[in-house]
Amino acid sequence: MIDPFGRSISYLRVSVTDRCDFRCVYCMSEDMAFLPKAEILTLEELDRLSGAFIRLGVKKLRLTGGEPLVRKNIMHLFRSLGRHLQTGDLEELTLTTNGSQLAKYARDLKEAGVKRINVSLDTLDAQKFAAITRWGRFDQVMDGIRAAKSAGLQVKLNAVALKGVNDGEFDKLIGWCGEEGFDLTLIEVMPLGEVGSGTRVDQYLPLSMVRADLRKRWTLDESDYKTGGPARYYTVRETGQRLGLITPMTHNFCESCNRVRLTCTGTLYMCLGQEDAADLRAPLRASESDAPVEAAIRAAIDRKPKGHDFIIDRRHDRPAVARHMSVTGG
Ligand code: SAM
Ligand code: SF4
Q: Which ligand is nearest to the CA of 22?
């Protein structure tokens, strides 16, 4: 699949549920309204749709959410998708998780063929963690991370950089990840969805500033490491681990975008920062043949936009894109 700007689309992120056991302040409001169950694709439908993308050239599949591991019977989907790894049609199957269910599922994930996982953790301070996630339990996540490590999963931590919240902690996170053998990626807050807690202007911390500050204490060697995601990587010489920076706001990361995002209702977003989307549920359900849905996927890729235009609207404090991150899974 090649889009109008010559980018080859080989990476699909699938949000398998919009529900979550946390309510992170930058992601959800506390009283989120979730989709009615009838709207949501079954696991079999998600499997079939993912299979169509793989036939069309997707090599890397990431399950996300909401919290992917709170979806009932989610291991069925992992195991079923794992068969594409065995045939070699898929190169990587992975997930982004808040870690709360990892103690339960880490081994099963490994067995399904998952090698690397991203765990979102913004702080090592249990009180701050409770404030950021509202409903999360720090110890449960730590147990999950330990379980993942001992199951042999390679762990990368994702931390959203939040001004006045975790900006004094990056050294600690870098040091801890160094000790544990984890890579770390810092992410800028993106203006997606109403979250009803403070303002985006208050939360937003440009990573260009963070990097300049970190360089006073750490040696950040430029690295050409690529994961197929949007992060720019450095190797922290003192720890030997990688540090990724995802800077959608300060640097336009769209030129090399190889991704599209599927929601749990079968809506395909060709760009995280644009409203345009294609409904794949109707063509999927219309026929037992995959021809209609494959045609719909191709038509969608043919109108993938050049890039996002995120702007944190300082005058009105409105999100640039109305849907929440938990719809498309980041
Ligand atoms: N629940 C899982 C988790 O937290 O990892 C997967 C879904 S979550 C939406 C995926 C990632 O998006 C997390 O790393 C989260 O921190 C990040 N995220 C959520 N809202 C964001 C926002 N407004 N700006 C930047 N990143 C955000
Ligand atoms: Fe849930 Fe992940 Fe959003 Fe936090 S960032 S509320 S864990 S979906």
A: 2
Full pLDDT tens readout for the chain, 330 residues: 999 999 999 999 999 999 999 999 889 988 889 999 889 999 999 999 999 999 999 999 999 999 999 999 999 999 999 999 999 999 999 999 999 999 999 999 999 999 999 999 999 999 999 999 999 999 999 999 999 999 999 999 999 999 999 999 999 999 999 999 999 999 988 876 777 655 565 788 889 999 999 999 999 999 988 776 678 899 999 999 999 998 876 655 678 889 999 999 999 999 887 888 999 999 999 999 999 999 999 999 999 988 876 555 544 555 666 677 777 766
User: Which residues sit opposite 222 in a β-bridge?
Assistant: 234
| Single pTM value for the model | 0.92
State which ligand 1 atom lies nearest to the alpha carbon of 119: 5
Domain ranges of the chain: 11-328
CB 240 within 8 A of CB 199: no
Q: Which ligand has the minimum distance to the alpha carbon of residue 133?
A: 2
11-328: which CATH number, 3.40.50.1820, 3.60.15.10, 3.20.20.70, 3.40.50.2300?
3.20.20.70
Give DSSP secondary structure letters for 160-190: EE-TTTTTT-HHHHHHHHHHHT-EEEEEE--
Ligand 2 pocket test, candidate residues 138, 326, 328, most atoms within 8 A of CB: 326
Cα-to-centroid distance, 322 and ligand 1 (Å): 15
- Dist. CA 36 → ligand 2 center (Å): 19
Nearest CA-CA partner of 208 in 250, 158, 164, 255: 250
Atom of ligand 1 nearest to the CA of 64: 6
Is the torsion defined by CA of 203, 207, 213, 219 positive or negative? positive
